[in-house]
Amino acid sequence: MRQLQLVFILALCICPAIWAQQLDTLAPDSGPDGRQLKLWLTISARKRFVEISWKNAPARDGDQVLLTIQDPHTFELQSVPTGTPLAGFAKSRNSDSESESEESSGSGADQVAFVPIHGYTTPGTVAKADVIPMRQQWGSNGGNNQIVAAIKPSQSAQWFTTGVPFDYALSRNVTTHSDCYGYWASYIDDHGRILAKTCIRAHPRWMTNWHSGLGDLRLRDLFIPGTHDSGSYRPNFDPLLRESLVTKYALTQDDDIRGQLLHGARYLDIRVGFYRPSEEKFFIYHGITKQRPLKEVIQQVKDFVQETNEIVIFGLKSFPWFGKNLAVHHLLVAYLREQFGDFIVHPSLTWHATLRDIWKRQQNVILAYDKSEVVQQYPDLLFSGVDQRWGNVQSWPRLERHLRYINDFDVSRFSSRPVVDMAELTPETWDVILDKDGGLRKMADNVNWRISQLYRDELGEHANIVAADFIRGTTLVETALEMNRKKMGH
Ligand SMILES: *[C@@H]1O[C@H](CO)[C@@H](O)[C@H](O)[C@H]1NC(C)=O
């Protein structure tokens, strides 16, 4: 066990180095713009810590990446009393305590001088009371902007899990008018100059904001962020308090549907099951576990598109407990028609339709139904299912190979039917029973930062829909928007 952990830690430690190297070889002379310093903020799945990542950083002596709770306009040096005890971040390379090792297996992992400034500690671990002899430290906005974490960048591209817990109550306050909220990250040099900054942000209207630029494109032409098993969330769930074997392998998202849409997802992976005993007949299923009522999911999609006029692909598939004949499908389609009503995009538009064609009809929800016998019978309601490219793999090397393969040998590139890269690991049944993988959150933390890197550095340009578990732990939305902006020629 000890040995395994060591190997794991070692593997994680060399990752940023490899990553940095890849960047150098991939973008050797891509002008000043291609080498622009960029920062991202994400949220880890398992412990919901704020994560900070960057690329193209100068990583000079004296540079720092600072996490604040408001938009920073200035950074200035302040003197602080000597001897102020700071909570050391319990994450040292040679540590051998169980909880710390587990910490190191978070999303990205690396060891640098990292001090959570106001004593944030890792839940479940005892903070080491490193007494840092006090001197000057950075303040922001004249001392009015709290700095909660500081990192010394040592590589041009890195990904860190901070010890700062993200409170999902912040996300529940997001509206269709929100932008930045909660946390900001700034990369500053030794003079306190801000070289780049970012924030945790919602993207409630990215399509309509770019209405004219995107109008001529089809959904197949865009990079569309999606969520895997979108309805497998639990309102107000806290994995640090209530995790069980069932929640560990059933839940795939932390935001409800509205939250997913507000944060930029436009493809939903909806697995509807039939549950005869209850009055409410249709539920979202993950495998055989019953999750949210379909009605709740539909209501949130309707409210969202009504407020924003965004376009959403509602991808229906799987259909557990529907039985052998199509009777239950007919019930479901009738239910979808009744619930979505005028929001349903008319299938006569076909997948060839541009966003402008869709907006012209004032319809917003595409019902992509993954059962052709049913689609044929409802030419006024249902689009054919999108092509989900699922690897059914259990490790990052195999997931990476799968994602590269489906993008490199994309036989459907000339079709207008959207394709979905399923960018998540899938545990095997026995591994779930034995809890071998530690749960979907742990698996997501293991791959989400790598998926983020793969799409932003390599696959993003040609990707169509990418669906991930715990999408808040990825930079897929930011990458999608960046790629789409390029497509409209900005
Ligand atoms: C959410 O908004 C309410 C009302 O404005 C506010 O009282 C509350 O503190 C907010 N919650 C968080 C976590 O910011």
Automatic annotation (TrEMBL):
Recorded GO CC terms: endosome membrane
Q: Which domain of life is it from?
A: Eukaryota
What residues does the Phosphatidylinositol-specific phospholipase C X domain cover? 215-361
Gene Ontology biological process terms in this record: endosome organization; lipid metabolic process
Answer yes or no on keyword Signal: yes
**Start and end residues of each stretch annotated as Disordered:** 78-108
User: Where does the UniProt annotation place the signal sequence?
Assistant: 1-20
Keyword line: Signal
State one molecular function term (GO): phosphoric diester hydrolase activity
What name goes with this protein?
Phosphatidylinositol-specific phospholipase C X domain-containing protein
Q: What is the lineage of its organism?
A: Eukaryota, Metazoa, Ecdysozoa, Arthropoda, Hexapoda
Query: What gene, per UniProt, encodes this protein?
Result: Dmoj\GI17061
